[in-house]
Structure to design on (152 residues):
C-alpha cells in the first residue's frame, strides 16, 4: 500500500515538474499574474519550478503573430494610452478643483474672521496684528488667483 501511494505521489510530482508556468504583469491592474499561457502582447517570463533551471524570457506572442495581429495590439496599446491620459487628466482636474476650493475657503476665513491667530510653539494662540492679517489676506488672494485661474 505504501509503495502504491509513493508511486502515485511521484507520478503527480513529475507531471507538475514538467509544466511550464509563465509570469507577467497585468496591463489593466498592474498586478503580477501566473498561468500556463500568457495573454497576447504581454512580456512574460518562464517561472523556475522545482528541479528546473529555465532562465529564458518569452517575448510577447505578438512578435510571432501575423502583421494584422501586431496592428491590433498596437491599436489596443494606443487606446490604453488614451484611456490612461484621460484618467490622469481627470485626476489632475479633481485635485486642482480641491486646491481651488481650499484656497477660496482660506481666503474667505481671512476676510470674514474677526481675530486671526496662529498656534505658537507651545500650542498657545498668538493673535495676529492688523498688518500680519493684511499680509495673509494678500497671500491668500494671490493663491486663489494662481490656483483657480491657472490654465494648466
Amino acid at each position: 500500500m505504501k509503495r502504491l501511494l509513493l508511486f502515485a505521489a511521484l507520478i503527480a510530482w513529475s507531471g507538475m515538474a514538467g509544466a511550464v508556468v509563465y509570469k507577467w504583469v497585468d496591463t489593466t491592474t498592474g498586478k503580477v499574474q501566473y498561468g500556463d499561457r500568457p495573454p497576447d502582447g504581454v512580456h512574460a517570463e518562464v517561472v523556475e519550478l522545482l528541479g528546473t533551471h529555465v532562465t529564458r524570457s518569452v517575448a510577447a506572442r505578438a512578435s510571432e503573430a501575423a502583421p494584422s495581429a501586431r496592428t491590433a495590439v498596437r491599436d489596443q496599446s494606443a487606446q490604453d494610452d488614451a484611456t490612461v491620459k484621460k484618467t490622469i487628466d481627470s485626476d489632475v482636474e479633481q485635485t486642482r478643483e480641491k486646491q481651488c476650493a481650499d484656497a477660496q475657503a482660506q481666503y474667505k476665513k481671512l476676510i470674514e474672521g474677526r481675530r486671526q491667530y496662529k498656534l505658537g510653539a507651545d500650542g498657545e494662540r498668538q493673535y495676529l496684528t492688523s498688518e500680519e492679517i493684511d499680509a495673509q489676506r494678500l497671500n491668500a488672494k494671490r493663491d486663489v488667483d494662481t490656483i483657480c485661474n491657472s490654465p494648466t
Q: What stands out?
A: The chain has two domains: 18-66, 92-152. The first helix runs from residue 2 to 17.
